[in-house]
What we know:
Layout: H1 2-14, E1 33-38, H2 44-57, E2 64-68, H3 82-92, E3 101-106, H4 114-124, E4 127-133, H5 136-145, E5 151-156, H6 161-167, H7 177-193, H8 197-201, H9 205-228, H10 233-245, E6 249-251, H11 253-262, H12 269-281, E7 285-288, H13 295-300, E8 303-307, H14 310-316, H15 324-337, E9 344-347, E10 351-356, E11 361-365, H16 372-389, E12 393-398, E13 403-407, E14 410-416, H17 417-423
Parallel strand pairs: 1-4, 1-5, 2-3, 3-4, 11-12, 12-14
Antiparallel strand pairs: 6-8, 7-8, 9-10, 10-11, 13-14
Helix pairs in contact: 1-3, 7-14, 9-14
Amino acid sequence: MKELFKRLITDFMEKDLEVLSRNYNIPLDTQKIVSLIGVRRSGKTYILFDLIKKLREKGLRENIIYVNFEDDRLIGITYKNLDELIEAYFELFPRKREERIYIFLDEVQEVEYWEKFVRRIYDSLNTQIYITGSSSKLLSKEIATSLRGRTISYEIFPLSFKEFLDFKNIEFNLYSSKSLSFIKSAFNEYLIKGGFPEVVLEENEDIQIRILRDYVDLVVYRDIIERYHIKNLSLLKLLIKYIFSNPATLISFNKLYNDFKSMGYKLSKDTLFEYFEYLNDAYVAFTTAVFKSSVKEEVRNPKKVFIVDNGFNYIFDTSFSPDFSKLYENLVFLNLRRKYKDVYYFRQKREVDFYVPQEKLLINVSYDISSKETLKRELTALEEGMKYFGIKESYLITSEKEETITTNSLKIHLTPLWKWLVSKS
């Protein structure tokens, strides 16, 4: 194993890295272990490569160890073998024992008890450690125990719209008609096909669809079925199809349970709830609760479900035309969830799509407000929420309309989604 590690270390050291930077401010030097968590293929590895490239530019090429534990040559590795990784490195570079070493462990959850090794080298060596993983539950559980107080975590999502424009090399210039036409065209693509980096960089539509389908299979089989030993595979696939086809939808577990049961599926409510949790653990689906003063009230109300990327809706939605209202709302959620852990919806007489307590931020989303009745409904709901929370400003996200409406000293900013996504990235 030690000889294999030497080859992996050397091969990577000789490898040239060409990466596009993401909008994450990951520290190069900190007293903490840095963990990157997120859905598979969201770009965690290339964020590591970007950090490594910056370290190389500082003349630290030989101070870097990078290992991807999904490498087929490392199948069956145990945490006891990980000591040989450090031994292999110092046999290659003995003079580096007195210097700071940067260790990058990619998809580290593939090694059982990895956290014991990470904790020990963190405590005993002069090292900066970066780890990535594709399961929120796995890493959060182990970080909360063995790595308590030693780590800072960053959630990694597929590309934001601002990053999408960067990847497409599109300049953001609000004063240029040419730039605006490119931005709006890019937004239409982003809205439908999402922001997985590999999909964004692929121009062939058939291949884009194939990539997205492979991603679903990868998440389902690697992060859910194998990890949790799922027996009712057909039920899990039906649940995934339902969620991906219906993003930004209020969902009642009781109703879903009864619907699936009426279709002939054998299941319990506990099983359905567990499968939902597995999808959440893999960063595939998220839920928001209604904002209430008591946890009991939150639990009693339906949750709203969202998906990690609109591209998954693209491959599962069988309707003749996309549901732009749902896709708009899903993008707003993702942009909020990148920055805030706690995102809710709010309801009194009327419903407001999003409330973020941390910022006292209220947002409604409406793709088409050409109808006076629709516009009035959206504005009235926001006014009701603003009065409840004592907020003076809120947002109504639209497709094109842009203006500020003031009523009773309350301001509601109507903003096109593409513009809001860039300004709030």
